[in-house]
Amino acid sequence: METRDLAVGIFFLTQTALGMVGNSAMFFCFIIADFSGIKVKPTDLIIKHLTWANFIVLCRGIPQTTAAFCQTYYLDYVSCKLVLYFHRVGRGMSLGSTSLLSVFQAITISPNNSKLAELKGTAPRIISSSLGLGWALQLLVYVCIPVYTTDIWGGKNDTGIKDFGFCVIMNPGRLLGILNTILLTSNDVIFLGLMMWASGYMVFILLKHKQRVQHIHRSPSPRSSPETRATQNILTLVSIFVFFYVTSIVFTSYLSVLEETRRLSNAGAAMAACFPAFCPFLFIRHHAPVFRLCSIGFHQTIHRAYVVREH
């Protein structure tokens, strides 16, 4: 085994294991909250779907790791189609869920005299349908991927194949390849644009509120204000998110015009899984209420079990 393959395998193994542990802990919090009967916020439903999408994205790391460690490991015909198809669906839904979360938060903190304030009453009621529509949209947008995906043996004699190590994608032709790239990239760009707009709007509202509060009190505190901390959190999350996904979009677009793509496909898969892997830890740092919910639910579950045992 070459040193490069060993390094690739270790990287994917670490990334996948770390992401699985983090997302499992996050999902476990919601299970505890559900069993405890705690009423969750609308945003918690979005985060739950985001966690599922992250799991799907990270699942590709399993065959990717195995292929790096074992050069003779290949998926069969059906598994290849399912792995690459649902990886793209999960990636798109991870991006869409994060964008929906940002838009919902922007609506929540919007001033009462703004146009977004009119959506405050209806936004929580349409979250479930929006998530369902998001899944349906991603399943439809990426339906072309299984058509051109096959196993290593199926694409052995074809020219212009894209080698992913454990599967290959056959060349659909230059024109069709360009059209597919435009369609798939547009899907990502729209969600990224929505998230950046919503995050920019939230930063603008928070900064305006900070100026208004300082003008009223005229007593600057040595500690940073809640608005400043919230703004810093938003900018941190958006910067990390945009960096990973823009890099992933660039790799995806570039791969569509290349024939031999083994190294670049590894880099593209790694960048696509970076945010799903680190997402739970970012929520721990910047969205502590999610894990407060877990703590409250855990204590309530223990208390109920204790009461039942006593009686």
Major sheet, described briefly? 3 strands, antiparallel
Question: Number of helical runs?
Answer: 10
User: Structural class of the secondary elements?
Assistant: mainly alpha
Secondary-structure element series:
HHHHHHEEEHHHH
Overall structural domain count: 1
CATH topology value: Rhopdopsin 7-helix transmembrane proteins
In terms of DSSP E residues, the strand content is under 5%
- Give the termini separation: 62 Å
* Unreliable stretches: 297-311
Oligomer: single chain
The radius of gyration computed from the alpha-carbon positions, rounded to a whole number of angstroms, is 22 Å
CATH hierarchy class name? Mainly Alpha
Q: Helical residue percent?
A: over 70%
Corresponding CATH architecture: Up-down Bundle
Could you give me the name of the CATH homologous superfamily? Rhodopsin 7-helix transmembrane proteins
Q: Report strand order across the widest sheet.
A: 1-3-2
The general outline is globular
Summarize the topology.
Blueprint: H1 3-36, H2 42-59, H3 61-69, H4 77-109, H5 127-141, H6 144-148, E1 149-150, E2 162-163, E3 168-169, H7 174-217, H8 226-255, H9 262-286, H10 288-310
Antiparallel strand pairs: 1-3, 2-3
Helix pairs in contact: 1-2, 1-3, 1-9, 1-10, 2-4, 2-9, 4-5, 4-7, 7-8, 8-9
